[in-house]
Amino acid sequence: SAPSERVGDTGLVITQREPYAGEADTESGLPRPQDLMYVLYTSGSTGKPKGVMNQHDGLFNRLWWMQQDFQLDPAVDVVLQKTTFTFDVSGWQFWWPLMTGCPVVFAEPGGQKEVDYLQRTIREYGITTVHFVPPMLELFLLKPAELPSLRRVICSGEALTPSQVNNFRAQYPEVALHNLYGPTEAAITVTRWSAPKERDQLPVTHVPIGKPITNVPIRILGPEEQLRPIGVPGELYIGGVQVARGYLNRPELTAEKFVSLPEGGRWYRTGDLARWMSYGNIDFLGRIDSQVKLRGFRIELGEVENALLQEEHIQQATVLLRKNPKGEGFLTAYFVAAGNPSITFLRDALASRLPSYMVPTYFLQLPELPTLPSGKINRKALPDPDFGGGDLSGDAPQTEFEEMIHAAWAEVFDREAIGRKVHFLDLGGHSLTGIRVVNRINEAFELELPANTIFRYPSIASLAEHVERTIRKLLEEMDRN
């Protein structure tokens, strides 16, 4: 409708518009289920904002499911609203209390980042229900507190880790902890997993994103849109009533992301890599666009992160492909941990779960991972590793075998000072440099060691012992013959 103008009390000219009624039912004036409810802009992986158009029926289904599952009670419950309205999670913090008649307490600006303030607010107002992005939950748990009113904590927006779940259970054994997953393009939430309370199911070693919510079918498909069996990764597709209308004024992008499948209906291609697990749960493996190619191997960074998070001391972790000044790529793991776990221990632990080419070369322990205003990890703010390797001189070679192997390492790495117990990977070693090292050793000692020898004996000292044993065994066999 055309705007009209009036002069306000302060003398300012105020422009007014009649309420938007273009899609409303003309008889009742109420919106219809298929009418547009809101447009929320999200940057996505490209950094270019795109407006997601969600309808009333999708948001209603989301809120209706939440009430059916969580049973918010207006006589008991109080919801804390602390999420910025530009983040889609804020939606249920506004609308769920409104539709159920529950009180809602608005946190003061900036208060969502202050643990003392949040704990004080929860106690003062008897808050029962609160949402955390997992990195903020991590900070919240650093200061144990008595919060008798707290009944449920809901997490979303970032991967919830086993360490966070176990720490939460230790401090709040009777409080429900729920892990929700969903994109803006599908009305906030499409799956839910609840942390167990039973002692025999703790500690948790893996956190899935859970099972689909009511009226939201999920498919995990391969490149040709074929169904993936249990355990096989694929792209996660979302169908049903919560799928958004599309992107505002972006028909090409809408056609790319909102597609039809042979079984019928509109489906949203999330770009997320996932797999079905037993008991109907879904395992989130990261973004498909986070797949990298390193020395001929395709690697899912999310799979490496999940393996690292299985270590009980690791609280947060992310893995990136970094390039050194020569343009060579290396996997780099950034993590927050309780205490100071040995890098050698972490590397060996990952080597027991992953192929050697998926084990990060560099491990950087940080006091905390940098975050965006939404609470998600700000990967662009993570520091580069020390590609120079720092001081890796250590003890000099002690035997003739060690001296010869040291010479091979020095040639391959173009570095004279290498300690006899320095790990091959700490020098920036990888599968190709490993082959070069083993080839030089085979030439020097007239052996036929396999290329993976370097990963079984990753220091000059251990490799020298192996070479000496191998030669002694060969000589013994020659004497017997």
Brief synopsis:
The protein has 481 residues and is of the alpha+beta class. 28% of the residues lie in helices and 23% in strands. The chain has a 5-stranded mixed beta sheet with strand order 7-8-9-10-11.
Describe the structure in your own words.
- 28% of the residues lie in helices and 23% in strands.
- The chain has helices at 56-70, 90-100, 115-125, 134-140, 162-171, 251-257, 301-309, 343-351, 400-413, 431-445, 453-456, 460-480; strands at residues 4-7, 13-16, 36-42, 50-55, 79-81, 104-106, 129-132, 152-155, 176-181, 191-194, 211-212, 218-221, 234-238, 246-247, 258-260, 266-276, 282-287, 291-294, 297-300, 314-323, 329-337, 362-365.
- A five-stranded mixed β-sheet has the order 7-8-9-10-11.
- Helix 4 (134-140) links the parallel strand 7 and strand 8 (152-155).
- Helix 9 packs across helix 10 (431-445) and helix 9 (400-413) packs across helix 12.
- The protein is elongated, with a radius of gyration of 28 Å.
- Residues 1-22 have low confidence and may be disordered.
